[in-house]
């Protein structure tokens, strides 16, 4: 596998990263992080389920899809620590993943459209495609950690709320979407790391640029004085005279 080719691994990694970011966006916007189910013993009334998200809160009667109570200012008065942490963690994870996607796209475009023989004047400014994919993989791994840790904490914090108050709390679908998106980010980083390890030649340094120098530099660079042939003064200064027959 060569670093100068766009392989299915990098394309699959880009698609997987895009799907994971879309999943994170859905988890952030959906008001389905926690449910609080309130029961009533009055036969003339219906049970109420309170859906708690990161930004809004909605209360619905059983069998109804309309919100009886809709609080769009919930994000300013969140009283649950896990949801407050997620308000900062998930947007940060999305920003990190989008930066990784941008780097991955730069590396793919560079390997697909840039000539294999660079201009000698631009040799020091060339984009390192392998380095772009390596940094993108690290950023995807960081985004996975930022997203996964508070998302899993919601499950344990939900158990804590049930023990502290009443067993009326349950985590909702957004938790599963966030965890699945974190798994997609981890899978994306693994794909990029595998691509980098496969295309990296063993003798090269860990940070492998595609073009450490322009190919023509070796052809026209002057040799050091110590490498020149050491001719005697007679051979240099005195010309050889030949007699024509």
From TrEMBL:
Cellular component, GO, one term: plasma membrane
Entry keyword annotation includes Membrane: yes
UniProt entry tagged with the keyword Ion transport: no
Transmembrane regions listed in the UniProt entry: 6-30, 88-114, 134-156, 168-196
Keywords, ordered alphabetically: Cell junction, Membrane, Tight junction, Transmembrane, Transmembrane helix
Source domain of life: Eukaryota
PROSITE patterns in the record: CLAUDIN (PS01346)
Cell compartments where the protein resides: Cell junction, Tight junction; Membrane
InterPro entries (alphabetical): Claudin12 (IPR013287), Claudin_CS (IPR017974)
Record's bilayer topology term: Multi-pass membrane protein
Family: Belongs to the claudin family.
PANTHER family, per the entry: CLAUDIN-12
The name this protein goes by in its record: CLD12 protein
């Amino acid at each position: 596998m060569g670093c100068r080719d766009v392989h299915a691994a990098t394309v699959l990694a880009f698609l997987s990263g895009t799907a994971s970011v879309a999943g994170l966006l859905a988890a952030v916007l959906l008001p389905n992080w926690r449910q609080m189910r309130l029961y009533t013993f009055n036969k003339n009334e219906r049970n109420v389920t309170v859906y708690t998200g990161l930004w809004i809160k909605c209360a619905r009667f059983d069998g109804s899809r309309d919100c009886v109570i809709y609080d769009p200012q919930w994000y300013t008065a969140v009283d649950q620590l896990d949801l407050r942490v997620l308000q900062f963690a998930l947007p940060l994870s999305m920003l990190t993943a989008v930066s990784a996607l941008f780097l991955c796209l730069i590396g793919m475009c560079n390997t697909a459209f840039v000539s294999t023989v660079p201009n000698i004047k631009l040799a020091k400014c060339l984009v390192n495609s392998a380095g772009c994919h390596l940094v993108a993989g690290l950023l995807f791994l960081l985004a996975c950690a930022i997203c996964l840790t508070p998302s899993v904490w919601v499950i344990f914090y939900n158990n804590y709320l049930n023990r502290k108050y009443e067993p009326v709390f349950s985590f909702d679908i957004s938790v599963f979407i966030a965890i699945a998106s974190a798994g997609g980010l981890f899978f994306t980083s693994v794909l990029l790391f595998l691509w980098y390890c496969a295309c990296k030649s063993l003798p090269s340094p860990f940070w492998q640029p595609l073009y450490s120098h322009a190919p023509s530099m070796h052809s026209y660079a002057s040799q050091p004085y110590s490498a020149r042939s050491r001719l005697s003064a007679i051979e240099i200064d005195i010309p050889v005279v030949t007699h024509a027959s």
